[in-house]
UniProtKB/TrEMBL annotation:
Signal peptide: none annotated. SUPFAM superfamilies: Homeodomain-like (SSF46689). The keyword DNA-binding applies. Residues 48-67 bind DNA. The keyword Isomerase does not apply. This is TetR/AcrR family transcriptional regulator. It comes from Nocardia halotolerans.
């Protein structure tokens, strides 16, 4: 069995006699699976109850008999996966911190694989939960991180509590990274690969924390450069509120323009701004590869340069890094195809370098590790912001551990 893009259940059961349509006993499970796939593909705001009903082959009225609103369905699915994560770490574990940690990792990987589509929502759409529900989801995630922290306390007693939380956050980012892409691996291979990557993060040698915070280094944009200013302000708003909740008027105001109509002198619309930002992000990752390879003596050294550059770019543009994953579905379809091709080629080049250092890995395994390393850096940048505990040198060190073992 391959682990690939999640698929929702569809249709209803047809009776063997006289073609009688019967309501299946697992209708709520079917609804959950179909809605998770729909939300994961188009985002919470991009899906209607009618879309979900059509995917199930039932009427909207029949769907509303099970759930009173789209939000109720969204909420239940996210919190269900949160419960699955906490349950995966609560199962009976063997003796010994190392064995217990591996047991937890196995459970978390299994829960992530089983709920791949919904984990996408947890990672990027959870902000659309109402505050009380978001607090529940946060508590579920904190319970998972605390359980990993507990084992790290025994395995790495020299680490401070914030350092243990940094490592556990990195582990969770590695595991849930499979929700950020649709690549496939045999389930057993995937479990082994992700578990080994997580365990590699527990090894010694962590660089010291930074002595001061490392704020983002961003080029200053003069007010007269409206094209660039609009791009930056729009990304900041998309990150803060979510793309569907930002209007052209909001972007114009943030950029100091008198009216939304002024934005159209620079961009055709909101999606055009998003596409321009994404193209820049994708080109930056792909454009770094050639110089790194040409300017270094071997693949390991090239990877070192690329890791440092990726961490620096991600930390300098934290909002764009998140928006790239969270709002990808809002980019026009033709532009998505271009962006996916750029990303695919970039990941392949990173994976090629990884395999030249670790020839035992398959091409698919190396690609999974590249995706895992990217996700981990983004998660650490978001969780710790400018905290010296998760400074750039440390995050780069952890990224190398994921890629190179």
């Amino acid at each position: 069995m391959n682990v690939g893009e999640s698929r929702g259940a569809r249709g209803s059961v047809v009776g063997a006699e006289e073609g009688v349509r019967r309501r299946p006993k697992n209708r709520r499970a079917q609804i959950a699976a179909t809605s998770a796939t729909a939300f994961g593909a188009a985002g919470y705001h991009g899906v209607s109850m009618e879309d979900i009903a059509a995917g199930l082959g039932i009427s909207s009225a029949a769907l509303y008999r099970h759930y009173p609103s789209k939000y109720a369905l969204f909420r239940e699915e996210l919190l269900r996966v949160g419960r699955a994560f906490t349950a995966s770490i609560d199962s009976p574990a063997p003796e010994g911190a190392a064995q217990r940690l591996r047991h937890m990792l196995t459970g978390l990987i299994g829960a992530t694989v089983e709920n791949r589509a919904t984990v996408t929502l947890v990672r990027w759409e959870g902000r659309y939960l109402e505050p009380a529900d978001r607090a529940v989801l946060d508590d579920q995630q904190n319970a998972v991180l605390a359980a990993i922290d507990e084992q790290l306390t025994v395995l790495r007693p020299e680490l401070s509590s914030p350092e243990r939380r940094m490592v556990s956050t990195a582990m969770l980012g590695v595991i849930t990274s499979i929700a950020d892409h649709h690549a496939a691996l045999p389930a057993r291979t995937l479990h082994k690969l992700l578990a080994a990557a997580c365990v590699s993060l527990t090894g010694p040698g962590l660089p010291p924390p930074a002595t001061v915070s490392e704020p983002s280094v961003r080029a200053q944009i003069p007010d007269s450069f409206k094209h660039e200013l609009l791009l930056r302000k729009a990304v900041e708003l998309f990150h803060e509120r979510g793309y569907p909740n930002v209007s052209m008027e909001d972007i114009a105001t943030a950029a100091g323009l008198s009216a939304a109509s002024a934005v159209y002198r620079f961009y055709r619309g909101k999606s055009d701004i998003l596409a321009a930002a994404f193209r820049r992000a994708a080109d930056r990752v792909s454009g770094a590869i050639g110089p790194a390879v040409a300017g270094t003596p071997d693949s390991g050294a090239a990877l070192g340069v690329l890791v440092d550059q990726f961490v620096a770019d991600t930390f300098d543009e934290r909002a764009l890094a998140v928006v790239y994953y969270a709002e990808f579905g809002h980019v026009p379809a033709e532009e998505r195809a271009v962006l996916r091709n750029i990303q695919r080629l970039s990941v392949q080049e990173w994976a090629r370098l990884v395999r030249e250092v670790r020839p035992a890995l398959s091409a698919a395994e190396a690609r999974f590790l590249v995706h895992a390393a990217f996700a981990m850096v983004i998660d650490l940048g978001q969780t710790f912001a400018d905290d010296p505990i998760a400074c750039r040198a440390r995050v780069g060190f952890l990224m190398r551990r994921v890629l190179l073992g």
